[in-house]
Amino acid sequence: MRRIYHRFPQSIDLDFEINRPFRDVLACIARMHDTHTTARGADGLVKERILVLIADGRTQFLDLNDLVPLAENVTETADFRVDLQRTLLTPEKRLPVSDNVFFLRLVDRGAVTECYVAKEGRLGEMDAMDLRKMLKGACE
Question: Organism's domain of life (predicted)?
């Protein structure tokens, strides 16, 4: 079943291919969902979290955990909303640093998967190339 979001941006920021079959890339996306890393930054400890939602009913997004197994429920094309959150961890509280939201479309092209990325808004320091690097790293 194709999972398309009807308001996917017409103007994309980046188009690239991953030399892996569609099902393999879906598995990579599923592994990335709801993960986080913690690193020391200039201001202190920073937590980076990745949340992935998949298009549902052409008008909304659904948490990936609600659609398991992913490879059996998605064919041909899938639209995702990827939310990359950065939070500064202090002893007193957690302070949101940035929230980068991307739309990601994966298209099955046989031995390769074509990817289209569009960033929602202009806030945040990340761009489409950062998401590409993360996705390719997760799939290798």
Answer: Archaea
Q: Contact at 8 Å (CB) between 116 and 79? A: no
CA proximity to 33, closest of 54, 6, 56 = 54
Which pair of tokens denotes residue 21?
A: 């079959």
Unique residue bearing structure tokens 């957690």 = 94
- Taking 3-state DSSP, the helix, strand and coil percentages for the chain, each rounded to the nearest 5, stand at 20, 45, 30
Beta bridge partners of 72: none
Which tens digits make up the pLDDT trace of 91-128? Answer: 888 888 888 999 999 999 999 999 999 998 877 778 89
CA separation (Å) from 100 to 73, 95, 112? 27, 15, 27
60 vs 4: CA distance, rounded Å: 10
DSSP β-ladder status, 77-89 and 112-120: unpaired
CA–CA distance, 63 with 30 (Å, rounded to integer): 10
